[in-house]
Write a structure and sequence with these properties.
By secondary structure, the chain is α+β, with helices and mostly antiparallel strands. The chain has 21 helices and 24 strands. It folds into four domains: 113 residues, no CATH class; 89 residues, Pdz3 Domain (Roll), CATH 2.30.42.10; 224 residues, 2-enoyl-CoA Hydratase, Chain A, domain 1, CATH 3.90.226; 121 residues, no CATH class. The strands form six sheets. Strands 3, 4, 5, 6, 7 and 8 form a six-stranded antiparallel sheet that branches. A six-stranded mixed sheet has the order 10-11-12-15-16-21, sandwiched between helices. The chain starts with a helix and ends in a 13-residue tail after the last helix.
Amino acid sequence: MSVKKFIAPQLALLFILSSVWLAGVDPVVVNDGYHQDNLHKYLQVQRRVVDNYFGETDLNELFEVSIQGIVNTLDDSTQTYEDTPIDMNQNFNVQNFRDSYSKYEEAYLYVANNYPETNMSKVVENSIKEMLSTLDPHSVYIEPEDSERMMEQFSGRFQGIGIQFNVLNDTITVITPISGGPSDLLGIRSGDRIISINDTSAIKYTNEDVMTRLRGEKGTSVDIEVKRPRNERIMKFSIVRDDIPLTTVDAHYMMDDRTGYIKVNRFAATTHEEFLASAEDLIDSGMERVIIDLRNNPGGFLGQAISISEEFFPRGTKLVSTESRHSRFNSEVFSRRDGVFKDFPVMVLVNEGSASSSEIVSGAIQDHDRGLIVGRRTFGKGLVQQQYELIDESVIRVTISRYLTPSGRLIQKPFDGNNEEYSFEINHRSTDAAMDAEEFREDVPDSLRFRTTAGREVYGGGGIVPDVLVQDSTSDSYYLFNFMVLNRVDFEFVREYLDSNGDKFNAEWKDDFQAFRQDFKWSESDKDHFFEMMKDRGLTIDNEYEEATVEDETLYMSQETYDELVALNYGRLKAEVARMAWGNEYFYQVNNDYFNEALHAAMDLWGSAEQLEMFVQGKVSNLPDFNKN
């Protein structure tokens, strides 16, 4: 090689570096580990989307919106970025992954060099979010810290000391120890105040502070100091952290001699196991028919929804199918065995908060005329996501398929690209359950009308329309109730009550929950004290107000309105006593006594469920309109 050929490129490189140095910019090099990871993360996401998304994707569009994400991060309205790698007016013409990566790398390095104060990790995150926003509302990016919490939620367990807590008057107050957890086994009680953690004051901790200090790996220990009501001595505990189950079955109990009730709050890794344990317990208690409560259950693992659906059918029953442009995600799922509930009359409670896996279960039961669906029209999510971990432990959820109920209907409601409108669509539905269902049916095209096994008409394109529609209480009934909950008066009142009356309460009620549930009443002095606490929080009695009114965090109402509405508050206070005295499951038994129109309606519908069964068996030729019963 000639000297000239050797020196020329070195001089060119020296000139470039000198120019950058004179401009006062430190050059960013792509082989820096931080920048390499950022760029690799970007490419990871793009590949996952193109290789797995259930619908068609346009690589050039994905790239273009990712550059828009960079521009949005800079948020500099004075810049046009003309003739730069992030000029949005250019024709990017991305044909393949190589084009995409090299052009994005160029844009990335342009920003890193020219805007050195910019957080380049956030730049990439915003590019990823913009890419996913072109897909559907359920394909999302989840940051590393949020990813860990979500995995805990759906894994069915976490590691820690095992308490439910609230921060009351700047002090961590134990609502209840989780049954069988480390705190429960050491004797920590409801009402205990945690005043220090590892020899450091825990006063004025936030909920986030508590989670950070008390959670930890199994086998590690944490020292706490506890102040117990009516006990002057500070109690010290050294708690060894352990696996804490995050239960997904909130409650199961017998509503009468024949009827079992099971409430499922989501579909996580342990849900089917919990569900079976609850079913077996109820069967041992004499259950002959069952109500499954899926209201406000947002869904979760598809496999768990299939496993629970399976429990209502004989072997070989079609439960759900999935469709995608990728054949590996296409499937038809049939029950593999006879379910434990296959011969039990069943009703399922749903509402607009019931989504995804909840709709798979209720859709299968409705399509096969297996039981009655009761409540309000469900959310309408018929898409299935797969989670993919990225290089920095963040994750993306990508929609890989859509699911169809056994009759072939897609439950997914329409999406026009506006995530906010999509998420809050349920807020724009009629508050009247029957009117909402009627308006929905009127707009359903013939292509989205289907038939159940017995020939009943059902609908796709916007959730499950229940067989029996149940109207919720009007919001006016909850003005006083919501004011109490928002100001945490219920928790504080009950905590004070048990602090002052704990021994007397335990002596009278602790060994007989059913007697408490049936006979416990608040005394007049208790009611007066509650009234004073509500006034301290901003309740103002003014007889000039014909209707309850909230102004500047003050609730105005007449004495007559207060006397009319306060019974709901007393019911919730009683339920909170049950939670603190016996545990979370007992809360639901009392709460359902006061706040459950759909559940109470369901108990009057067993005759209709029997009529449906007779219709399916051909014993009657006409099926009545359940909503007119």
